[in-house]
Amino acid sequence: MCYISTHMNFILIVKQLATAYQEFEGYSSTHIRGLGLLPVQFDVIATLANQPPMSFKQLGEKTLISKSSLTGVVERMVQKGLIATQNNPDDARSHLLKLTIKGQKIFDKTFPEHLKHLEKVFQKLSKKQIKEIEESLKTLKSIFIS
């Protein structure tokens, strides 16, 4: 008996999405490591850069890092002097996170370099292809939001 109906073509989409993400992650993270950062550190630095201080909860919502991993990452980045904490005037139980001058300097150096690295592959796509991919990903995302 065949369990895959003609309506289950989505399995091919899931496979392509997963493998595309794996390839992207490999290409991106190798470069980030070459810049002297872990991908999670780069994610935090890029999220905090040029933003007002944000709570740990806000940072967690804006990054792709699990809450359990984020705690350790932030603690180590504070120890390295990349992130500073300050009291949250709206909630005495929490702190706000922001980049230090050292963290901002790392962002100013690594972010443009990494964008150039990514541009090398994305420039292989036409403007039309980029728009189509963007719209398809938006559509895919929307079907999971109830």
Write a structural description:
This protein is mostly helical. It contains 6 helices and 3 strands; from the N terminus they run H-H-E-H-H-E-E-H-H. The protein has a domain at 37-131: Arc Repressor Mutant, subunit A (Orthogonal Bundle), CATH 1.10.10.10. Helices cover 64% and strands 8% of the residues. The protein has a 3-stranded antiparallel beta sheet. Helix 1 crosses helix 5 (101-122). It is globular, with a radius of gyration of 19 Å. The chain starts with 9 loop residues before the first helix and ends with a helix. The model has no long low-confidence stretch (mean pLDDT 92).
How is this structure best summarized?
With 146 residues, this protein is mainly alpha-helical.
Instruction: For the record, give the distance between the C-alpha atoms at the N and C termini, rounded to a whole number.
Output: 33 Å
The dominant shape is globular
Number of helices: 6
CATH architecture of the domain at 37-131: Orthogonal Bundle
CATH domain topology of the domain at 37-131: Arc Repressor Mutant, subunit A
Helix content: 55-70%
The computed structural class is: mainly alpha
